[in-house]
Structures are given as structure tokens and as C-alpha cells.
Design a protein that fits this description.
The chain has 23 helices and no strands. By secondary structure, the chain is an all-alpha fold. The N and C termini lie far apart (108 Å). Bound molecules: heme C (9 copies). The site of one heme C has 22 residues, from helix 12, helix 14, helix 16 and helix 17.
């Protein structure tokens, strides 16, 4: 039974043997870099070779015959010609779907709409072409964690140009996207927690249609993932007001690349994002301070009951029910932070009140458990004292029994 596959293999081998490939043979013997890298390339594994991209005759042994113009040899490929070369196969649905039925064939089409694609078409060689992002001669499947377009590696791939001030000088656009992004909640979620649902560069800019999201679509970019917040924001008075002023939505308050962990400091105090447009003594400024107060109040109450509950649990008291209730109260705090995006005090206050009520309840449960613990400890102490007293009494009694009759004083001396 076990031998069957081996027999089958022997039978198939001569048929499946790779066609002659003098390009790979000679270039490997020469130790040329492209040939040495090629074993890692997805195209090599799909049976393609040098000649499928560079042209020429792979059956000819002689260098000149193999790399002859007459056989379509094109030599080195100019940067601007790369997208069309790749598109020759990748935009051909018939060909691609033979290898991978679900494969997309719109990369080149999208690329042409991107800033990269438009500029390369007008002769600008400094923008990204297909191989700047995917590499060349060791092109990997995009799922491969070693691929330069894998979400964890992509920021560095883009940064090769976008963080290089000299490379970008003539365009006068910022070069801090990578640096900012690496400080963001998104990179922390992706890199530290392995949360692949957090955005890398292409999640916001698109894989092939890399354009900056325009002002009207910025809220939509964030809203793709933060649907709840997006829903509140789009119904708030800010949405039409920001649109009329030409201000970007979410990005006005959170930034784009360096989105930081939000807190109530964004509402009140000298880091308030509201202060961009509302003075502290305006009704809107006061509303912001009020919301911050409620969120801070709930946060403090939760910390307090957290501590009481932890103390109770660590001294062995049963508080699991209160702990569950406490989790709900924490969820209310998250909801209150989300509700800020309605920009109405009542939206936050309803949640804050129910959160405060729950926190008070769990705190009471914790305190009762601690009282119970103290009561038990006192009971235990009393019992212990009683036992000790009994033992001491017994010991005294025993000594009284065992002690030999007292000799008269002075007897036995001298
Ligand atoms: C017998 C050896 C040999 C064979 C067969 C061969 N090459 Fe080459 N190839 C070379 C050498 C040597 C060079 C360097 C030539 C030079 O610098 O002028 C080279 C250069 C190249 C270059 C770079 C050209 C440039 O302008 O820089 C490409 C691309 C290339 N080969 C592709 C191929 C392909 C595709 C095939 C198969 C169809 C092939 N080679 C077959 C020896 C070979
Ligand atoms: C999927 C298409 C593709 C395949 C397959 C391919 N190449 Fe290339 N090759 C390119 C592109 C595109 C460039 C231009 C890269 C650039 O602009 O940096 C290039 C550049 C080169 C160059 C000149 C630049 C250099 O790195 O020295 C050589 C030589 C070369 N290829 C040889 C080969 C050989 C040998 C093979 C087979 C082992 C091969 N290529 C397979 C697409 C391909
Ligand atoms: C600015 C960088 C960049 C450029 C330029 C680029 N790609 Fe991509 N490519 C990506 C990213 C990012 C992915 C998605 C990776 C993932 O799914 O995690 C991707 C995915 C792919 C895929 C897998 C299928 C798919 O569409 O998701 C193919 C095939 C592909 N690219 C081919 C090309 C071709 C052909 C070109 C040139 C016309 C090109 N790429 C240009 C970044 C780029
Ligand atoms: C001769 C046809 C052909 C050419 C030319 C070609 N490819 Fe491919 N490519 C394929 C086939 C077939 C596959 C395997 C099917 C698949 O996995 O999508 C593939 C796979 C890929 C993948 C992996 C896709 C995935 O889903 O993980 C990437 C990335 C890729 N090619 C990029 C390029 C780039 C960049 C170029 C140009 C330098 C290029 N290809 C040129 C035919 C070609
Ligand atoms: C080979 C270098 C290179 C690589 C790699 C590269 N880019 Fe670019 N990119 C450029 C250049 C040059 C421009 C043109 C700048 C301009 O027109 O303002 C540009 C333009 C852009 C723009 C439009 C900027 C604007 O406001 O005009 C965006 C967005 C962008 N790139 C995103 C990306 C992303 C995301 C990646 C990685 C997936 C990436 N780029 C990889 C060189 C590169
Ligand atoms: C969370 C979404 C998001 C992520 C992730 C992201 N960007 Fe952006 N990016 C934006 C938005 C939104 C803009 C438009 C800025 C505006 O209009 O205020 C932008 C603008 C740009 C621009 C135009 C110049 C500028 O700074 O305004 C470039 C270039 C760029 N991003 C590159 C990158 C690179 C490279 C990465 C990865 C390191 C990246 N972006 C990650 C959302 C994102
Ligand atoms: C591809 C999906 C995606 C996109 C697009 C996206 N985010 Fe996120 N965002 C996430 C994920 C995942 C987290 C981590 C969630 C967590 O920490 O629980 C996150 C976290 C955040 C946080 C911190 C939340 C917290 O309480 O820790 C803020 C603020 C944020 N994103 C704002 C934005 C803004 C503003 C944009 C648009 C410029 C945006 N996001 C675009 C997925 C996305
Ligand atoms: C007018 C300013 C403003 C705008 C516009 C805005 N936010 Fe916020 N956002 C805040 C403030 C303030 C907080 C912090 C509330 C707190 O923690 O007390 C916050 C918190 C968040 C949080 C964290 C909620 C949590 O779970 O802790 C996320 C995620 C978020 N915003 C995403 C977005 C998205 C997505 C948009 C666009 C649809 C957006 N924000 C628009 C001001 C804004
Ligand atoms: C980019 C400027 C800008 C920023 C930043 C901004 N606002 Fe506003 N806000 C406005 C404008 C304009 C209006 C008037 C909308 C209307 O009523 O037509 C407004 C209206 C309001 C209102 C009144 C809504 C109503 O029902 O009439 C409140 C409350 C408010 N903002 C709170 C905030 C808070 C809290 C922040 C910070 C988290 C903030 N705003 C940040 C521009 C801004």
C-alpha cells in the first residue's frame, strides 16, 4: 500500500521533468544574483523561468543564441516598462485563473489610477512600480510572512521611499508617515498583539490604488473598521459642519498616521482637541468639560471598586458575581467614550450614570465581602485565643501535678 505513491511517482517523473532551461543553468553557474534568488520565487514554483519575463530562447545553450533579439530577448527591463510586463500575465484572466481561480486581475488597472501609476506614466521613475513593493526574482506569495507586502513588513517597504527625505525632496510632501505610524495604536495592535485586523499602510491607501484618501472619504476610511463611531459621527452636527469647512472628519481630532490612545484629555485641559474650534467658555467648550468630568468620574469609581474587589478576591472571598458585573461596568465606560462622538452631553451622561450605579454596587459587594472576611478573622482570633487559654491552663495543671514535693529551703547545702 505504502509503495503505491512511490511507484506512481517513478512513472510520472520522466513526463513531469522540467523543460530544459539554459538561462537558469548558465546564470546559476555564473552565480548571478537573480538566478541564486530565484528558487524562492512564486513564478519559479509555478514553472515559469527567466525567459517568461526577459524573452530569449531557453533551449539554446549558446549565450548569443539564447539571449538573441531575434528570439525576443529584451535584456534588462526599464523601470517604466515593469508594470506592463507584469500586467501581460496578471491582467489576463484566462491565464491567471488556470493557476488560481479566485485570483484578482485588476492590479494594473488600479495601479494606473494611483499617484504612483500616473506619475510613472508621465516618465517619473522615482515612484513605486510593481517590483519596488513585491521585490524581484524572489517574489513571494502575498500571504508569506516574509513577503515585503505582508502587513507587518509593508510599512518598511513604503518607508524605503516615503521616509527618505532626499528621495522625496522634490515633491514637498511630509516624510514622517512611517515614524508617526510606528507610534500609533494601530501599529501597537498589529505588531505587539498580532491583531491583523489593525490597519497597515495599504489598509487605508489601498494595495494598488495608493492615493491619499481625499477629505470627503477620510471618515469613510476609518469607518470601514470603526463602524459604531462612524455611525454616531455621521449623525452628529459636526459631520455637515466639518464638511462645509473643508475639515477632514476623524483625522481632525485623531490625526491620520499617528493615532494615539484616546483619553478624556482630548476633551478638556490644554490638550483638548475641541479647543481648535471652541473656546473653553463657549457652550460647546463647557459641554466638552462636562463630558470629560463624567468619563473621569466613572473611570475613578471603576478603579476604586476594582481595587476593593481585588483585595476581597486575593483574601479568598467569593466575589465572582460582582467581578462579572464589574466587567459590564467597564464596558459601559468604553460605550461612554464612543458616545462622545454624538457630541451631546446627554448621550454620555446616560451611560455614565448607569456605569456609576454599577460601580457603586460592585464596590458595596466588595466591601461586604471584606467585612465578612474581618468578621471571620475576628471569630477565628477569638477561637484561637480560647484554644490558647485552654492549652495554657492545661499546661499549668500538668506542671502542678508533675512537680516533685518542694524540699525545705536551705536543705542539701554544704
Ligand atoms: C551560456 C550562458 C548564458 C545563457 C545560456 C544565458 N545567459 Fe543571460 N547572461 C550571461 C552573461 C555572461 C551575461 C552578462 C553579459 C554582459 O554583461 O554583457 C548575461 C546577461 C543577462 C541579462 C542582463 C542583461 C543586461 O542588459 O544587463 C539578462 C536579463 C539575462 N542574461 C537573461 C537571460 C535569459 C532570459 C536567458 C535564457 C533565455 C539567458 N540569460 C541565457 C550568460 C548567459
Ligand atoms: C517575473 C518576471 C521576472 C523573472 C521570472 C525574471 N526576471 Fe530578471 N528582471 C525582472 C525585472 C522586472 C527586472 C528589472 C528590475 C529592476 O528594475 O530593478 C529584472 C532584472 C534582471 C537583471 C538585471 C538587473 C540585475 O539585478 O542585475 C538580470 C541580470 C536578470 N533580471 C536576470 C534574470 C534571470 C537570470 C532570471 C531567471 C533566473 C530572471 N531574471 C527572471 C523580471 C524578471
Ligand atoms: C505600493 C506598493 C505596491 C505596488 C506598486 C504594487 N503592489 Fe501588488 N500588492 C501590494 C499589496 C500591499 C498587496 C496585498 C498584500 C496582502 O493581501 O496582504 C498586493 C497584492 C498583489 C497581488 C496578490 C493578489 C491581490 O491583488 O491581492 C498581486 C498578484 C500583485 N499585488 C501584483 C502586482 C502587480 C502586477 C503590480 C504592478 C502593476 C503591483 N502588484 C504593484 C502592494 C503593491
Ligand atoms: C508569465 C506570466 C507572469 C508574469 C510575466 C508575471 N507573473 Fe506574477 N504570477 C503569475 C502566476 C501564474 C502566478 C501564480 C498564481 C497566483 O498565485 O496568483 C503569479 C503569482 C504572483 C504573485 C503572488 C500572488 C499571490 O496571490 O500571492 C505575485 C505577488 C506576483 N505574481 C507578482 C508579479 C510581478 C510583480 C510581476 C512583474 C515583475 C509578475 N508577477 C509577472 C504569472 C506571471
Ligand atoms: C520606490 C519608492 C516608493 C515606494 C516603495 C512607495 N512610494 Fe508612494 N510615492 C513615491 C513617490 C516618489 C510619490 C510621489 C509623491 C507626490 O506626487 O506627491 C509617491 C506618492 C504616494 C502617495 C500620494 C501622495 C500625495 O499626496 O501626492 C501615497 C498615498 C503613497 N505614495 C503611498 C505609498 C504607500 C502606502 C506605499 C507602500 C505600500 C508606497 N507609497 C510605496 C515613492 C514610493
Ligand atoms: C489609519 C489609516 C492610515 C494608515 C494606516 C496610513 N495612512 Fe497614510 N494617510 C492617511 C490619511 C487619512 C491621509 C490623508 C491626510 C489628510 O488628508 O489629512 C494620508 C496621507 C498619506 C500620504 C500623503 C502625504 C501626507 O502625509 O499627508 C502619504 C505619502 C501616506 N499617507 C503614506 C503612508 C504610509 C507610507 C503608511 C504606512 C507607514 C501610511 N500612509 C499609513 C491614512 C493612513
Ligand atoms: C483596517 C481597520 C482599521 C482602520 C482602517 C482604522 N482602524 Fe483604528 N483600530 C483598528 C483596530 C483593530 C484597533 C485596535 C482595537 C483595540 O485596541 O481594541 C484600532 C484602534 C484605534 C483607536 C484606539 C482605540 C482604543 O480604545 O484603544 C483609535 C482612536 C482609532 N483606531 C482611530 C482610527 C482612525 C482615526 C482611523 C482613520 C484615520 C482608523 N482608526 C482606521 C482598526 C482600524
Ligand atoms: C471632534 C473630535 C473628534 C472627532 C471628529 C472624532 N473623534 Fe474619536 N474621540 C474623540 C475624543 C475626545 C475621544 C476620547 C474620549 C475619552 O476617552 O474620553 C475619542 C475616542 C475615540 C475612540 C476610542 C473609543 C474607545 O473605545 O475608547 C475611537 C476608536 C475613535 N475615537 C474613533 C474615531 C473615528 C473612527 C472617528 C471618525 C468617524 C472619530 N473618532 C472622530 C474625539 C473625536
Ligand atoms: C474643526 C472645528 C471643530 C472642532 C475641532 C470641534 N468642533 Fe464642535 N462644532 C464645530 C462647529 C462648526 C459646530 C456648529 C455645528 C452646527 O450646529 O451647525 C460645532 C458644534 C458643537 C456642539 C453643538 C452641537 C449642537 O447640538 O448644537 C457641541 C456640543 C460641540 N461642537 C462639541 C465639540 C467637542 C466636545 C469637541 C471636541 C471633542 C468639538 N466640538 C470639536 C466645530 C468644531
Amino acid at each position: 500500500m505504502i509503495r503505491r505513491p512511490a511507484l506512481l511517482l517513478l512513472f510520472l517523473l520522466p513526463v513531469a521533468a522540467p523543460a530544459k532551461d539554459s538561462c537558469v543553468e548558465c546564470h546559476t553557474a555564473m552565480e548571478s544574483a537573480p538566478a541564486l534568488k530565484f528558487s524562492k520565487d512564486v513564478h519559479q514554483r509555478r514553472g515559469f523561468s527567466c525567459a517568461d519575463c526577459h524573452g530569449g530562447d531557453r533551449n539554446a545553450d549558446d549565450q548569443d543564441a539564447a539571449m538573441s533579439k531575434a528570439k525576443g530577448f529584451r535584456g534588462k527591463i526599464a523601470r517604466a516598462a515593469v508594470p506592463q510586463l507584469c500586467a501581460h500575465c496578471h491582467s489576463d484572466a484566462n491565464l491567471m485563473h488556470k493557476y488560481m481561480p479566485q485570483q484578482r486581475v485588476d492590479q494594473y488597472e488600479l495601479y494606473q489610477t494611483s499617484v504612483h501609476g500616473k506619475r510613472i506614466a508621465s516618465g517619473d521613475g522615482a515612484v513605486a512600480n510593481c517590483v519596488d513593493c513585491h521585490s524581484v526574482h524572489d517574489i513571494r506569495e502575498v500571504k508569506d510572512p516574509q513577503s515585503p507586502v505582508h502587513p507587518l513588513r509593508l510599512p518598511e517597504t513604503c518607508a524605503r521611499c516615503h521616509a527618505d527625505a532626499a528621495h522625496m525632496a522634490k515633491y514637498k510632501i511630509p516624510t514622517n508617515q512611517f515614524e508617526e505610524y510606528r507610534k500609533s495604536v494601530h501599529w501597537a495592535a498589529l505588531a505587539q498583539r498580532g491583531d491583523l485586523s489593525a490597519p497597515s499602510c495599504a489598509s487605508c491607501h489601498g494595495n494598488h490604488g495608493a492615493t491619499p484618501p481625499q477629505v470627503s472619504s477620510v471618515a469613510a476610511v476609518c469607518g470601514n473598521c470603526h463602524a459604531l463611531v462612524e455611525d454616531l459621527y455621521s449623525k452628529s452636527p459636526h459631520q455637515p459642519a466639518f464638511a462645509a469647512m473643508g475639515a477632514a472628519g476623524c483625522v481632525t481630532c485623531h490625526g491620520n498616521h499617528g493615532v494615539r490612545l484616546p483619553s478624556s484629555a482630548m476633551l478638556a485641559g490644554d490638550k483638548s482637541v475641541c479647543a481648535q474650534c471652541h473656546t473653553a467658555d463657549s457652550p460647546e467648550g463647557k459641554a466638552a468639560v462636562e463630558m470629560a468630568g463624567m468619563i473621569n468620574g466613572l473611570n475613578a469609581a471603576l478603579k476604586n471598586s476594582d481595587q476593593v474587589l481585588r483585595q476581597a478576591a486575593s483574601s479568598g472571598m467569593e466575589v465572582s458575581e460582582a467581578m462579572l458585573r464589574q466587567q459590564e461596568a467597564h464596558a459601559t465606560l468604553v460605550k461612554a467614550r464612543v458616545a462622545v462622538h454624538a457630541f451631546r452631553v446627554t448621550a454620555v451622561s446616560q451611560l455614565a450614570q448607569s456605569g456609576l450605579a454599577a460601580a457603586a454596587e460592585t464596590r458595596r459587594a466588595g466591601e461586604n465581602a471584606l467585612k465578612e472576611r474581618d468578621y471571620r478573622r475576628m471569630g477565628l482570633g477569638v477561637a484561637l485565643l480560647a484554644i490558647l487559654a485552654t492549652m495554657a491552663g492545661l499546661w499549668l495543671a500538668l506542671r502542678a501535678i508533675e512537680r516533685p514535693p518542694q524540699a525545705p529551703a536551705g536543705a542539701g547545702r554544704r
